Amino acid sequence: MATERGAFRLLRAAVRPSSTTRPTARRLAPSSCPSLWSKEISSSWQLSSTRSSAVNGTTSCVRCFSTSSTRREVKAVKPKPPPLDLSQYPPHLIRNFAIIAHIDHGKSTLADRMLEITGTIPPSQAAVDRMDEDQKNEQVLDTLKVERERGITVRAQSASMFYDHPDGTKYLLNLLDTPGHADFSSELLRSLLPSQGALLLVDAAQGIQAQTLSVLDEARKRNLTVVGAVNKWDLVKDDGRGEAAVKELSALLDCEEDEILRVSAKTGLGVESVLEGVVARIPPPPPYVEAEKLRALAFDSYYDSFRGVVSLVAVVEGEIKKGDQVTSTTTGLSYPILDLGILSPREISIAENPVVASRTLRKGMVGWVVCAMKDVKDAHLGDTFHHTHAPMPPLESFEPLKSMVFAGCYPMEPGGFPKLEDAIKRLTLTDRSVTSNRESSSFLGQGFRLGFNGSLHMDVFRQRLEDEYAEEIIVTRPLVPVRIVYKNGTEKIIDNPDDFPDPGEMLKVAEILEPTIRATIVAPEEYTGAIINLCTAHRGVPLSHTYLSTPSSAHSAARITLVYSLPLSSIITNFHSTLKSLTSGFASFDYEEGPYERGDLCRMNILVNSVKVDALCSVLHRSAVQKEGRDWAKRLREVVPRQQYEVVIQAAVGSSIIARERVAPMKKDVTARIHGGGDISRKLKLLAKQKEGKKRLRERSIGNVTIPLKSLYTVLGGQEHKRKGGAKDKDK
Ligand SMILES: Nc1nc2c(ncn2[C@@H]2O[C@H](COP(=O)(O)OP(=O)(O)OP(=O)(O)O)[C@@H](O)[C@H]2O)c(=O)[nH]1
């Protein structure tokens, strides 16, 4: 690659116009194209000299957008306008595929490169000048503020692109970029619905990680064809780690090493071969059948204040056009299609667009429809639409994941509830995996109890909510759903610590069950001991211990896969960050839902001057109560302002106090008025009077301690969350 870079620099110098002569169009020799690291690109090399010379006399390669010109000149090269005659694309010329991988293995970056190479989006500066290592990628499909700030994909996004294969055939590729984190796996599941295949990426430097295994598992469950690719090839160069990753991945996919693609999404190396691989190896949707009845699968939706609900659909059978009357199989409601089109990656309407030759979305295509659906509650993920006059059974869908982490959400500002309610309604539309129910707290007033798929999901939603709501919000301590089985056979699921049975009611309880997870940890072998200790400390039960790989070169260590059963409640706070720090960041962690297991749980109350602060109560395992109690009492003492009277903070389980902290009262020097040689009995009298006054004050203050909401916000991690918001969220 070093020689190629050198060649590129020489090339740039050779074609750079002199200051005295006017630049002229110049053909680059194929071997000069900087992206010729892959043979595939070399064979399909072509120049847009006519187009570029018309602009400013420079040359550029239409496939990789590398150029001999300066940055300013190249910006003027326009992307190809997408050909919008959709009738050219029967199912055999369509490929629907998802990009799946462990977090941060480069899915969004690869999606960017594919969109650039196919001319769907203009080249980003990084693509124009691939030699600039520090150029930032655009992450075009990561559109949310929170995604850009944290550098993670939160929402799956789709984009259609038109690909000119080197053999001259044009293909319509529908790409779905998925999130890597387990907390957003419902996004992954819905992205797999319209796909016939998946591109599985693995970071060349890291190899297979825990989520590589789990996303592959999901793809296999849906019988998708999986194409393996090792990304970030530029990072490994010739040090053997890349080939080790190829070996691992080929063993995992049970294929030849030659079938694994070598890619660098950052530099563009091998991206053309990925497009060719997708076309060659991922099967097309089933062929078109004459007079087939419509079945369209809704796999996503968002709300537009003018048009109502916009649904993303995969046309599985038949075709759909403007004016059609369709019926939802879930609600039975019928709607006229008002507008429809494709996402490329922005909406392009095909209903009335003069540059569009065909007006229908046909079998195998993925696009959006607006169908006069005004109520967001009617938009269901996995819904099937059929023509109202031709009823059809629903298509196979997916089970949405259950909420596993619950927390209360309250406005900081008094009277902020209606605004918060509105913001939650709007956000839950784009994130269907969040559940919300009204609740009220004696301390915080009216609010909501929200359910999430995990703690990162909760953190991300909180940040999106604060952006949307434009105010700070208080989010209470997370709780996993606890199942209470009573002696009379009845059961109750508890998602609020306040509903946990009191000691009196406990006599009627037969058992308390808590959710567990099946955690998979992948790490270099040397960290095995540390990981086992960590899991044991979190009440883990080992399930399996296998070798993922043996060392294949001086640069790759043997790696192990540990599978543990862990109580969900023990991993929602700091398990992942501790795992990362114990293993110097080398371990990766993923989990799936496990069964409910018996747990010795109890409710810990936090009392301030004997009054329960419901926002701080939690349900914990009895072994963790002492430590947690002391911790929370201390944290609260730091933020409760000193008052005229003493404030006592206690952590209690039932009637037993497990931790106590005290905030000393403010002390006024009442003897100050008495000068140096004053009478001692007068001083004592004043002090006794002050003591009496404070006693009365304290008696009055019971149940009336003022804890500013800002202090609660801090103690519940609000500031921490703000600080974390700016950083990349790899550690979650
Ligand atoms: N050196 C190098 N860095 C890359 C490459 N591909 C991606 N990256 C970097 O890796 C980081 C993560 O890339 P993303 O594309 O956000 O990864 P992702 O898989 O979409 O991440 P999630 O969606 O959060 O799971 C970014 O900083 C990218 O710039 C590559 O080929 N080479």
TrEMBL record:
Entry similarity comment: Belongs to the TRAFAC class translation factor GTPase superfamily. Classic translation factor GTPase family. LepA subfamily.
Compartments where located: Mitochondrion inner membrane
Species this protein is from: Leucosporidium creatinivorum
NCBIfam families in the cross-refs: lepA, small_GTP
Pfam family of the protein (one): LepA_C
GO molecular function, one term: mitochondrial ribosome binding
Protein origin, superkingdom: Eukaryota
PROSITE patterns according to UniProt: G_TR_1 (PS00301), G_TR_2 (PS51722)
Stated role: Promotes mitochondrial protein synthesis. May act as a fidelity factor of the translation reaction, by catalyzing a one-codon backward translocation of tRNAs on improperly translocated ribosomes. Binds to mitochondrial ribosomes in a GTP-dependent manner.
SUPFAM superfamilies per UniProt: EF-G C-terminal domain-like, P-loop containing nucleoside triphosphate hydrolases, Translation proteins
Chief place of localization: mitochondrion
Membrane topology category: Peripheral membrane protein
Chain positions recorded as GTP binding sites: 101-108, 177-181
Keywords on record: GTP-binding, Hydrolase, Membrane, Mitochondrion, Mitochondrion inner membrane, Nucleotide-binding, Protein biosynthesis
Domain Tr-type G per the UniProt entry, residue ranges: 92-286
Transmembrane segments: none
GO cellular component entries: mitochondrial inner membrane; mitochondrial matrix
Protein name listed in UniProt: Tr-type G domain-containing protein
Gene Ontology biological process terms in this record: positive regulation of translation; translation
Reaction equation(s) it catalyzes: GTP + H2O = GDP + phosphate + H(+)
Keyword Membrane attributed: yes
